[in-house]
Amino acid sequence: MERRVALKNMGLAFGYTVAAPTLLGIIQSCNSKKVLDWTPEFFTKDEGTIIHTLVDILLPKTDTPSATEVNVHMFIDKYAQEALPVENQGFMKMCMGKFTDKVLAASQKESLADLDQEDLEPVFATYLKKRTDDVEEAHSEATEAYFKSIAEGGEAVLDDEVACFSFANSLRNFTIWSYKTSEHVGEEVLAYLPVPGEYIGCGDLETLTQGRAWSI
Question: Helices (H), strands (E): how many in the chain?
């Protein structure tokens, strides 16, 4: 199935939990800014540029907006800054660092500022393609052990491959979730019915939604 069609029919991609007022505030803040004026809060400027590039690799512009056109990169940055626990913030930074180190080594470039889409895409695709039930289970166990070690005050070490896999797939989930949460996608791409709205007591669901998933 074509990627964008599949997206329209997906449910919530990842079970992030955050209080509704906090989520609403993040969404409104991202909607009020223009991309050109954006300065990351959680990521460095170079890291923010990497995130900007990666989310558009995942969701490029087609008949619907690209991820960055609905400010997904800004949402992820702000969510990480305002909603993630400190230990998860550190984990995200660490995993991203290992991922970008892998890209730098593969591209033989020296800094994040030198990286472009052609450098990022093959490494990103490698870890996304590794996503199987067995791999996810093994990596989940390694990640749980990492956080348990931190909670117990021990030395936490995570394999580079696990960290890269975790970053790539977490960013994928974050991106899809953020995209589906945006106002434009919620109202124009997904099936949307304001409350209160028209009541149709009996109707074919496929016809009423045009085959699309309901807006979150």
Answer: 10, 0
CA torsion 102-108-113-119 (nearest 10°) is -70
Give me the torsion for CA of 37, 42, 47, 49, rounded to 10°. -20
For the chain, 216 residues long, give each residue's pLDDT as a single digit of tens: 343 443 333 332 333 444 444 444 444 445 544 444 678 999 999 999 999 999 999 999 887 888 998 889 998 999 999 888 888 899 999 999 999 999 999 999 999 999 999 999 999 999 999 878 788 888 888 888 888 888 888 788 899 999 999 999 999 998 988 887 755 444 454 444 555 455 555 655 555 455 555 445
Closest CA to 146 of 214, 87, 84: 87
Rounded Cα gap, residues 182 and 165, in angstroms:
26
